[in-house]
Predict the structure.
Amino acid sequence: MINYTKQIAEKIAKAVEIESKEIENYIEIPPQSDMGDFAFPCFKLAKTLRKSPVAIAAEIKEKIETDEYIAKIEEKSGYLNFYINNEKMVEELLKEIEAKKENYGKCEENGKTVVIDYSSPNIAKPFHIGHLRTTLIGSSLYKTYKYLGYNTIGVNHLGDYGTQFGKMIEAYKMWGKEYNLEEDPINKMVEMYVRINNLCKEDEEVLERCRENFRLLEENDEYCRNLWEHFKDLSLKEFNKIYDMLDVKFDSLNGEAFYADKTDEVISILEAKGKITESDGAKIVDLEDAGISTPCIIQKANGSTIYATRDLAAILYRARTYDFDKCLYVVAYEQNLHFKQIFEVAKYLVDEKYYKGLKHVSYGMVQLPTGKMSTRLGNVVKIEDLINETISKAKEIITNKNPELEDKDDVAKKVGIASIVFNTLSTTNNKDQIFDWNTALNFQGETGPYIQYTYVRTKSVLEKVDEIPQASELDYSVLTDEASIKVLKSLYAFRETLEATVERNEPAILARYLIEVSQNYSNFYNENKVLLEDKKVQDARIFLTYAVGIVLKTGSSLLGIKMPNKM
């Protein structure tokens, strides 16, 4: 299918003898359709060509011609406005969707590798609402990069290392028989941890035994190692229930513990390059020259490393193992300083290709409206509780709307999860957000259920015809009215939307796009009767409906939303 942006850029580049890639970056889609389908702001070339934008626009217009794809070119106030041949666009678009079906917008492998570090809950602790955005943003980016042809590695960098495990081991030695960890393991482990932690505050001898347990764990003591593995397995079993519900997957579960024996090499490399200095007995890397006033601690005065050292070991390992082009860290903005520090220190550990590919995808907090949810763990809201309560509320709404609906439980599950996923991802990464059920479960608002409802409407229409017509036999002129063109232009923008999503690492771009497609189809549906006696018109509108269903389902799956067939 033709890339209009690229074709227009080539025309302009030829006229002014400038690299077309540079021109391509400046081409925009006007806010109103009467200003054209694409626009080029000529002031971008004013400095290079030493002319006014108005003069540049006039000069370029003189040198370029319309063709079968570009129907009209206008100059206005220093802009060049391009109007495409709608009928040709409709023909190419629908033929491509027919050929690619659910793979429309997908790319072949591009030879690039991206590592995405996301979710990363702590072993033996609740998987709480604070992990929701990292899990869903990371998962959506994972799916979208993969769809666009990247070799994509999803890493769950588990919080499975630290002195707290020495305490957990001691708690199990003392009271293990009192707790059945097979039943409600996370809460039982939390109870054990709280109990041993309180005892450590009262009894220095117990605290010493906990430290000794951790030392033994680091030295691979069989008993301590097996117990730690048991805590980890129990935790992952609980976490995987949530990951399965949210359709989240990983390629690696290498957490902090995996890198514990790899930190010596980090320290050796930094020392060999003269980057380590001492401060109160600790080993640090001074980052003043990079504009970072806080040094990066590499080793504490007692000889132990910290998570920054293990993150640096992870960068070294990932560069060697995956040969990545990008390595993304989907972590809350509270860790901005940490990532500035380790990315700066990474310059001394890995080649330029790798440290330039490091990116912190930061995000804001997610909260619930006060008083809307209580848990046994006080102010810790578990994701599993949030999911179950949302599914329950979704079922209530669905039952009221459609009492005769079959498979209510399955539909409620899909709708409930869609409301959580969309609510989480539709907010731009850097903003804090509040999850409110009344907003998230609104079937008419800008929500996940609204996108699902629109998809179900397309399914309902298609069930009323015997077969989907062939794109090559359609009369494309039928689909050149304003409402149809608006839908089709939004479908045309699918691939471009996915590329923008990964370029900015913002699933919100895709989420907002799916709302736009849904709204455009709803307007089309309200203005145009789809099933009618005129077969030529019906076939064209049926195929448009079919195309909308494909894009909504594919795009939603990249967010982590599954479509019901009925609602």
